[in-house]
Amino acid sequence: MKFLFLSFDGRVYFLFLCLCSFALSYWAQAFLLTDSIYYQSFGEQLSLQRFEALMEQSRKWQWIGYAITPLLYLFKLGLVALCLFTALLFAEYEVRFAQVFKVALIAEAIFLVPAFLRLLWFAEFQPSFSLEEVSQFMPLSMANLFDTATLEKWLIYPLQILNLFELLYIFFLAYGLRSILAKAFSEVLSVVLSGYGLGLLLWVALVIFLNISLL
Amino acid sequence: MKKKIGLYLAIGVVLLVAGLLYFAMQKRQEKQEKAEKIKKMPAFEFYDRDSLRLDFSAIPPKPTVLIYFNSTCDFCQAEAKQLKEAEKALAQANVIMVSTENLQEIRNFGKKYSLDQSPHFYLVKTSEDSFRQIVGSVSVPSLWIYDREGNLVKTYQGETKIEAILKHL
Fold this sequence. Notes:
The complex is a heterodimer of chains A (215) and B (169). Chain A is mainly α and 215 residues long. Chain A has one domain. Chain A contains eleven helices and no strands. In chain A, helix 5 packs across helix 11 and helix 10 packs across helix 11. In chain B, 42% of the residues lie in helices and 16% in strands. Chain B has five helices and five strands. Chains A and B meet through helix 5 and helix 11 of A and helix 1 and helix 5 of B.
């Protein structure tokens, strides 16, 4: 069966992804993560005058966050595609890197859903929140089964990664690659798990290492 | 053949993951031990502006605010300004500002923010190795507040307003 989305123009889709990400970031910055939320977190330690000066400075540099979004996407998609491509290569499948990259690009949209749900949650269901609660909340993840305030900080990220959307993403990648390779789904899924799965494992281990070393 | 190489690569990644996690856990244990050690004010090796070892027993018995700084850091400069402005309120404590920079830079910093005139402010130098051995790697500025008996009361990472410091003295 032809994978419907593979017929999309990759550049247009990439632009759509970036625009959605900009919109979510703007929503978060403009309506949720207001100065008072930041002050709630930093006010105990910073004087109001210094807090305002630092917020002013951060607003001045806010555009950088938007500007590097496409680069970060390219970097992430490149890494995912590289992991998948390597696994496919060693499993002796004939595929081009550009095709794998496109599958990764299309599947990436899945992660817009938890980002949207996170904002929706705090906008509608938990209007009183702290900056820490926002950063530690990941919809439909293992992290929600624990009181993150009592967990060691390095444990939060791996628990956030264990979420339903990550699972959907893996299935989506397998589904996309199956349409290119015309192989059994279970066969492609095992390649995705060995390529992307190992890559993700390495990434999580690296984040844990850096979290413990630097924080 | 390709599948065999792929298998070796996968084993390599798993070993790398195991290695990273092993070193992370070692680092975690090291940090926990250090955090435990600094609960009581350690015997730091600090040197004053004349390169003389700071004699803690000669310092009046008061709570201690230990501040780790670097003269080039913006937040440390902002902290220094606030400390100078609150000089009188902080007279109830010994404020020890320590840096791993050279003595001349520390002296210049003290002069620039007029911190070298206050009798309860001590601008001192330490070696990076000896300081790291005791507290580990920390950002600048970092603050540790000890009570009169040398028990750790509060730790702050980053610039800290005077009210927050005074609250724990």
